Amino acid sequence: MRRWFRALLVLALAAPFLAACDGSAKPPSHLSRGPGKPACGDTLVEGTIGEPSNLIPILASDSASFDVAALVYNGLLKYDKNMNLVGDLAQSWEVSPDGLVITFHLRRGVKWHDGGDFTSRDVLYTYRVTIDPKTPTAYAEDFKQIKKAETPDPHTFRVTYGRPFAPALASWGMPILPAHLLEGKDITKSPLSRNPVGTGPYRFKEWIAGQKVVLESFHTYFEGRPFIDRYVYRIIPDPSTMYMELKAGGLDMMSLTPVQYKRQTETPEFTSRFNKYRYPSSTYVYLGYNLRNPLFTDKRVRRAITSAISKDEIIQGALLGMGQAAHGPYKPGAWQYNSTVKDFGFNPEKARTLLAEAGWKRGSDGMLVKDGRPFRFTVLTNQGNEQRLKTAQIIQQRLKKIGIDVKIRVLEWSSFITHFIDKRNFEAVILAWTITQDPDIYDVWHSTKTGPKELNFINFRNAEVDRLLEEGRRTFDREKRKKCYYRIQEILVEEQPYTFLYVPDALPVVSARFRGIEPAPAGISYNFIRWYVPKEEQVYK
Amino acid sequence: MDFRSSYFYSVFWKSFRRNRFALAGGVVVAVLFAVSLLAPIITPRDPAAINAYQVLLPPSASHWMGTDELGRDVFSRVIFGTRISLYVGFVAVGIAMAIGTLVGLVSGFYGGWFDSILMRFVDIMLCFPTFFLILAMIALLEPSIWIIMLVIGVTSWMGVARLVRAEVLSIKERDYIMAARSIGASDIRIIFRHILPNAAAPMLVAATLGVGGAILTESALSFLGIGVQPPTPSWGNILTSGKDYLEFAWWLSLFPGLAILVTVLAYNLLGEGIRDALDPRLHR
Amino acid sequence: MITYLAKRILMLIPLLFGITLITFAVIHLAPGEPVDMQISMSPKVSAEARQRIREFYGLDKPLHVQYVQWLGRMARLDFGRSFAPDNRPVTDKIAERIPITLSLNIVALILEFGLALPIGILAAVRRDTLLDKGITVFVFVGFAVPTFWLALLLMYFFGVKLGWLPISGIHSLGSDRLGPAAWFLDMMKHLVLPIGVMTFGSLAGLSRYMRSSMLEVIRQDYITTARAKGLPERTVILRHALRNALLPVITFLGFSLPGLIGGSVIFETIFAIPGMGQLFYQGVMMRDYPLIMGILVIGAFLTLIGNLLADICYSIADPRIRHGRT
């Protein structure tokens, strides 16, 4: 669901639609091996459950808004298909030897969709409006590390950091806003929030409230004209309807649920019309405990709960096997992922022993009691995610078996965050974090980030983790960073502030008439402008 | 027509018996009561028991109605759902009847200033789209089974109030009430002894129809995700979990869907039957 | 007539007042202050901005003062800005969605009356025949079936299996390039299922009402007289009985009015129709207080006006009402 903070920026980068090729009209040679000839034209229709809220990305916090923004805007940098940082609006960049100064050399001749020239003034404006305390954005934190930002000429942008800041480069994936339309105006009241102007491969055409958002290809896009002429997001609030729409041909692309992927789309009729893809997503789902709550202050209790939960069962039951167990905050296989760290596995006996050590006794009804109080808590999770609700129910049943009474409450996203997470008004939650490419997880785990609305909402405080997080973001040396983050993973397993649950697979499905899709570590949509439909198969004129 | 006389019952029964639909409705309702009372005995399995390795199995000898998306036994869930759904229906209607009766009685009996205010209040409540009020209250409070019953009750008493008031007005001026009053019977006594028993018949009809309505409202709320919460099974939430698998796991939506359909139908036919049987003008 | 009208319009004032009071009460059921939402949507808003919002909504004042201030703003048609991240004026959001919901529901209402009245009359005239029983079961099944289930089944059958009808939305992609006739046909095809299911569900109430109203009239003396005079049954029913039996139906219309605005949360969600129901549901789930209050007040107000119109129609149709019997 929603990505927070830099997490959100990574969403833009992890789903980049821009391939790193030049703007030649001819398709790259490897595509001609595929069936059909690349041709311009046709429309891709994607289904979305939620309507975008605001198309000025720094003001939005929902994935629907960000999906649209990813096609309309560019950042200075982006991740390529193998998740390496490459230039986007920046042609090249230099980092000073001490790591404090980054100079971006901007691409020349880039136009905004309204015809204006893209210059360093736009970058400077974007930086300034993001850190402006009057701007209601959640993404200022990384940019507050900057001591000085300057524009020596229209095609150069230079930032100076006060101290070395390892995630600095990654943070410049942030979408750049048009200064000539926004400067000097109140961004919260700007018409651009419903009628955006960017530099990206698609320009905004129309947004019909509650129905659809339509984008058109930007013919003079600096990487060349995209093949697909139109991109339509159709807003369909009910997932069953959306799936029927796909089958009836009203949608070309959506995300499948595990059940749909495994049990409903195996027919020859379906597979001849659609291509399914499957790859690990960049999120991990966890059960987080409010450490201010006396129930969870004892480490043995948290370890007991983890032992009482079978991750295999959850992955089977909620994901039909389409995901992998998570043991820490990183994606298995990433350089910062410590594969030697595993938590203790499913062991209800051990859970019982640990709880008994912590002073919880079995009452007459089999439920745990301590000082006359039963062991009872509520797990909150967000609406619209079937897998998480299933996960919650499986956990509920497992914990009941060791004598813990769990209630489940499903909440709409924004009221969940504002009324429960931000006010620390919860006992336990099932939520997910986006796994960022850079291993810096300072905002989620550092003890200074426990203030109101900050992301360490479970109130995790560990002096050693604090020190390691600080060290990790202040050096560019990958080996040194690796050591820090390896150790952090060991501590997290020991402490179990979260029970890390799983990394689900992403399961997109695309109509088979679209060619040029090349699954890569970055997913499928990174080269969207190179997707095409052969002339004879085009559906929409 | 005195609700308490044996003559009344014989006329009522004679008329009711002739109405096959009403009889069928009555039988279904009786069976539902039996099922919900005996639920723990009938069900072969714990309705909340998850089996992550046996999800969405079709009906078989061991799972008569198949299994759901978490491997739970659909038959056991539908049986226990009977209990929850009837429970929701009855408590919600009970609340609505209590409020409606109170407002209607007070309004009709005392009249005047009191009456105008209460009836304007009824008019106002009737201006709101009921489902909007229900949604707003449940979402702002918390979707627990208690809140759901309370909110449905609190938003559906207006019809009852009008009905009771009209009954009271028509009875109030009758001779025997006048007589009771002249011998010094208290208001309370008159209300409980004379007026309520007479108003009971139309109230019974309203209540019967209301139970069906409340069951439907719960299923609509479940569809929106704010109905009865897991692991408690209600027909509404079983049906909602089945809607995503309409095409290949038909058993998950068919059985709870039919249960709702048949139950609500039965309550309506029963209610209509009672109404017809109570209406002396229809007796020929 | 003028006095009657004046009286009715004067009556609106206390009712309107009551509507706002109940809306205000419903909103204040929720724990916490509405302002928390606004602030939290914008994590970096400073304490002083928070104070500004508190002052704007008057949250630093006691409840009754807040209420009066809110009334004052509403009198100027200022419903505030939505708490959703788009921060748009509530009136804009309602204005762009109300036409869809209203027209959809009015069509359904017309269909409902067009079908339910003849069905009800037929059932009354053929009382206790097989036809009457068939109609009874048919309309009650429509009422008793969970609408979302039926809608999805029909959607699957007609949309996916047979491919006759579109699944969701109100226009096909590219319908804006069609001619007006084709465009209209395209829209109608989209609306067949939602309006059909909606109408099916609502037949029971009205047709049963019509049936009993008709039965009542048929028993009256003047019908017996008409029959005794040897008039053909058809004339008796259509000329004499129907006119009088239809009168109470006007009241029924009054009851249907709130449904015009609020009756379709489920349909709009399933068929992806961007109307008021969807908007309200989203608003409620997000605790978008200005939006919830705006929709409740506007919805109830429109119903009030509709009721007034229905009453006026009724008084024109039935002169007894004007004189004395209010």
List the helices and strands and how they pair.
The complex is a heterotrimer of chains A (541), B (284) and C (326).
Chain A (H helix, E strand, L loop, with lengths): L4 H10 L28 E6 L14 H10 L4 E3 L5 E3 L2 E6 L5 E6 L13 H12 L14 E8 L2 E6 L6 H4 L7 H4 L19 E7 L3 E6 L12 E6 L3 H9 L5 E3 L2 H7 L3 H6 E3 L2 E2 L2 E7 L9 H10 L2 H9 L3 E3 L22 H10 L3 E2 L5 E3 L2 E2 L1 E7 L3 H16 L3 E7 L1 H9 L6 E7 L7 H4 L17 H11 L4 H18 L2 E9 L1 E4 L30
Parallel strand pairs in A: 1-10, 19-20, 19-21
Antiparallel strand pairs in A: 2-3, 4-5, 5-7, 6-7, 8-9, 9-10, 11-23, 12-23, 13-22, 14-21, 14-22, 15-22, 16-17, 17-18
Helix pairs in contact in A: 1-2, 9-11, 10-12, 15-16
Chain B lengths: L5 H13 L1 H23 L31 H37 L1 H16 L2 H11 L4 H10 L3 H15 L2 H8 L4 H37 L11 H9 L6 H29 L6
Chain C lengths: L1 H26 L6 H8 L5 H10 L6 H13 L14 H36 L4 H15 L2 H15 L18 H39 L2 H8 L4 H14 L2 H14 L2 H6 L5 H10 L3 H29 L1 H4 L4
Helix pairs in contact in C: 1-14, 5-6, 5-8, 5-11, 5-14, 6-8, 7-8, 8-10, 9-10, 11-14, 13-14
Radius of gyration of chain C: 24 Å
Query: What share of the residues of chain A lie within helices?
Result: 25-40%
How many helical elements of chain A?
16
Percent in strands of chain A:
15-25%
The residue-averaged pLDDT of chain C reads 82
Euclidean distance between termini CA atoms of chain C: 12 Å
In this structure, how is the largest beta sheet of chain C organized? none
Summed over residues and divided by their number, the pLDDT of chain A gives a mean of: 88
Question: What share of residues of chain C is helical?
Answer: over 70%
